[in-house]
Design goal:
357 residues, alpha/beta, Rossmann fold, 7-stranded parallel β-sheet, 6-stranded mixed β-sheet, 9 helices, 32% helix
Length: 357
């Protein structure tokens, strides 16, 4: 149990939208601990459960859920979000009240919000973490981008986990000309480190993201893998009390989820990674020099853009979910894979945390 006597307390609050926002907060929490801050976790749903499992010694608070519900037909997502917007705005309002109470009761010195709009305060330094300066939403991109930039402007700083130059990983998502926002490009962040180890698995399936699309892809991939005779580790991305499952299907080992140390080793031990093209996953795979094939979440314009962007850079191929078949994995042979050339890619957290001093 860490000794937090007289340490400044920092709230770190990831959005509960899949697990990516929570996983990319893990290296930030570790850095806060290293620099003698006391992190306080605030989130909801699976994002909160994951961070509770990773950091059982830390104080944590449950925030109101945005209750974002995905659609079976991905193209209807933005209309569903528009329909749900009153409910989301109500949750944000409640979130602000909760945060104000936590700040007062815990004597908090700073905030790091990963895409949670209501986790900020005028009383203490508040930082917003996002890779989406531009928010792609098809025909409504102009409006969603302007709305998000207005949210960003309410924070003292905005940390963008990407490179500022042309070697960036997020393309147009993370870059925007003529912005009057206090943006700091901090470089990609990952909870993992690369290890040169012998390969144990031919394929690692790394599922994530909101329901029902996570389950739809799981069902499709298990059918496709029936004709795949190589060794597979299938990580369902479902947070539960049981990390491991006893389920095996011929050559396939299936687990619910893995915590960071086990997952880092599993990715290092795998020839190919099949995953969603979520940005947190992309940062992890770049750190681990992995070869990947992506299946973007249907209707999620951000993931569709990232998959296309990485294909154009000849880093990794992708397929629409409905069109994917297992033979498409052979396309990986014509792509370079990720390469963490900017070594050492080390975020200067000590300098970043000066905002809280």
């Amino acid at each position: 149990m860490p000794n937090f006597t007289n340490n400044k307390k920092i709230i770190i609050a990831p959005l509960n939208w899949g697990l990516g926002h929570a996983t990319r907060c893990i290296p930030i929490i570790n850095a806060l601990l290293k620099e003698n801050f006391e992190p306080i976790i605030a989130s909801d749903g699976d994002a909160l459960k994951l961070l509770q499992k990773e950091f059982p010694e830390l104080k944590n608070f449950e925030l109101p859920s945005y209750s974002i519900q995905y659609t079976k037909k991905g193209e209807n997502l933005k209309y569903r979000l528009l329909f749900d917007s009153p409910k989301i705005l109500k949750a944000i309002k409640e979130e602000k009240k909760n945060i104000a109470k936590i700040i007062e009761e815990e004597d908090v010195s700073g905030i790091i919000s990963d895409n949670r709009f209501g986790v900020r305060s005028k009383k203490i330094p508040s930082v917003y973490l996002t890779h989406q300066i531009n928010v792609l939403s098809g025909s409504t991109t102009f409006f969603t981008t302007k709305f998000h930039q207005k949210i960003i402007s309410k924070f003292d700083e905005c940390w963008v986990p990407d490179y500022e130059d042309s070697a960036n990983l997020a393309g147009d998502l993370s870059h925007f000309d003529k912005l009057n926002l206090n943006i700091k490009y901090i470089g990609p962040i990952s909870r993992f480190t690369y290890r040169n180890v012998s390969k144990k698995y031919d394929l690692l399936v790394l599922l994530s993201g909101p329901e029902p699309q996570r389950s739809i892809l799981e069902e499709k991939l298990l059918k496709e893998l029936k004709s795949y005779n190589k060794k597979v580790l299938f990580i369902r991305g479902a947070i539960s009390d049981k990390e491991k499952l006893s389920m095996r299907n011929k050559n396939i080992e299936i687990v619910n989820f893995m915590l960071q140390n086990e997952l880092r080793l599993a990715i290092n031990e795998s020839e190919i990674i099949l995953a969603r093209s979520g940005y947190s996953t992309i940062m992890d795979l770049e750190k681990l020099n992995a070869k990947a094939f992506f299946i973007p979440t249907p209707g999620q314009f951000e993931q569709e853009y990232l998959a296309m962007y990485l294909k154009q850079k000849r880093i990794a191929p992708f397929s629409d979910q409905i069109l994917f078949n297992i033979k498409m994995l052979n396309e990986i042979n014509y792509f370079s894979g990720f390469s963490n050339k900017k070594t050492p890619n080390k975020v200067n957290f000590k300098s970043l945390f000066d905002v809280f001093v």
